[in-house]
Design a protein that fits this description.
Blueprint lengths: L5 H16 L4 H19 L4 H5 L9 H8 L6 H7 L4 H11 L4 H19 L4 H7 L5 H12 L3 H8 L4
Length: 164
Amino acid sequence: RLNRTLCLQGLLSSIILFVEEGQDPGQEMTELKVEELILDLLQTNIRFFPTLFDFYRDWNVDLKEFMEDHFTENLSLSEFASYSGRSLATFKRDFLKITELSPAKWLMTRRLDLAENLLKENKLSIKQISYSVGFKTPAHFSTAFKKRHEMTPSEYRASNTGCN
């Protein structure tokens, strides 16, 4: 089931007008409506990417941009690969062309960098930060953070309060 978004409601209303009037919208309009539907679905939920990828001719994912846009999503490497339109092996190979780090190390680094900034802002709880940067559990976040900084997120926050 899809959430009733304003975009999807508007799209369906415009299609219903053609049906009710018994008019053929023509090839160009039909293609535009299909493209609009695909874009609306992709904005509704990232998990539509692999389902829709094969049907959207002109969609070519820039891997670096895709990863920057979605690194905080709680996804596996296989899901990142699939949503970027690649097999896992191709995803890893393409990833090494844009960075020296493996995808897993890049994700960990990027998530921990963001977490550091959020901890310095001191606005969100550590639990909220762990989920917002893409960790599955606060315990996993704390373990990874302590491994990198040799201190817990709480200790890091206390030692960096007021720092920019």
